[in-house]
Design a protein that fits this description.
With about 90 residues, the protein is α+β, with helices and mostly antiparallel strands. The chain is built from three helices and four strands; from the N terminus they run ββββααα. It has a domain at about 1-45. A four-stranded antiparallel beta sheet has the order 2-1-4-3, with no helix packed on it. The chain binds zinc ion (ZN). Zinc ion binds near residues 8, 10 and 32.
Length: about 90
């Protein structure tokens, strides 16, 4: 299976998984049903690790689907962080 990317003029890109060589020139947009034309992209062939590939995919996904949080991140350890990171000890002190 290969992932083909199609673009609707109003709703952006959508992906379709199909066997290699069976990509249609256009598919109906899943949102509005109008014709979404195929976008030619670089093949996603990689010899890298699956962890690296997952990170790249997650980073690319944030363009269209940014992560939404409900609370700020937990506070860092303050003094404990300074002891763990030697670079912070070199910062000027007031
Ligand atoms: Zn659309």
């Amino acid at each position: 299976m290969a992932v083909y990317i199609y673009r609707c003029a109003e709703h952006g890109t959508t992906e379709e998984s199909r066997p290699i060589g069976t990509a249609a020139a256009a598919v109906p947009c899943p949102v509005c049903g109008s014709s979404a034309l195929r976008c030619y992209t670089a093949p996603r062939l990689s010899l890298g690790s699956s962890t690296r590939r997952a990170l790249i995919d997650a980073t690319e996904r944030t363009r269209d689907e940014p992560g939404v949080v409900s609370a700020p991140p937990p506070r860092s350890g303050g003094r404990a962080d300074m002891r763990r990171n030697p670079a912070l000890r070199r910062l000027p002190r007031p």
